[in-house]
Amino acid sequence: MRFRLTPRETSFYDMFAASADNIVTGSKLLMELLGAEPSARAEIAERMRAAEHAGDDATHAIFHQLNSSFITPFDREDIYNLASSLDDIMDFMEEAVDLVVLYNVEELPKGVEQQIEVLARAAELTAEAMPNLRTMANLTEYWIEVNRLENQADQIHRKLLATLFNGKYDAIEVLKLKQIVDVLEEAADAFEHVANTVETIAVKES
């Protein structure tokens, strides 16, 4: 860590941690969706929408702090990218839940639970990592593991697509389910974007 002569705005660390904790909330709602009866999904979607709005508020708070701070803990562009990528994760998770409800999906294809389990693990790792931005300590294992999880998510996604196109589902159902599994894959990609941004910050600060 290089020595600095000027004080740094430290509230960013708390805001990133709050944003990541909110993502954990979203991942738990995804897990809850898996075991819910179709009639209970609308209520889960409402809670996910509230979590997504909380995520938006957290992102806007970071941007406001960024625009009003003369000194920042690390590069402004990296702060913006990290906040945006965290926000993207919540957006994708909320979209997936909303699509399940809007499309009146009776049963999700086998393999979606594996997608969501990967997202839940990535959410936990991200929430654990954000406080470490203060010291840049113990972050290497985080981004390595999130990248491994994203590779796992890619494999799960490909298997899901193969399942959807095996002739078991009618064309309309394929379109509905494919959009849902694609959005969940985008959430996994967004976790990797967060990890890559953290790695970039750590390298610059070392």
TrEMBL record:
Pfam families named in the record: PhoU_div
Cross-referenced InterPro entries: PhoU-like_sf (IPR038078), Put_Phosphate_transp_reg (IPR018445), UPF0111_domain (IPR052912)
Family, as annotated: Belongs to the UPF0111 family.
Protein's name in the database: DUF47 domain-containing protein
Source organism of the structure: Streptomyces flavochromogenes
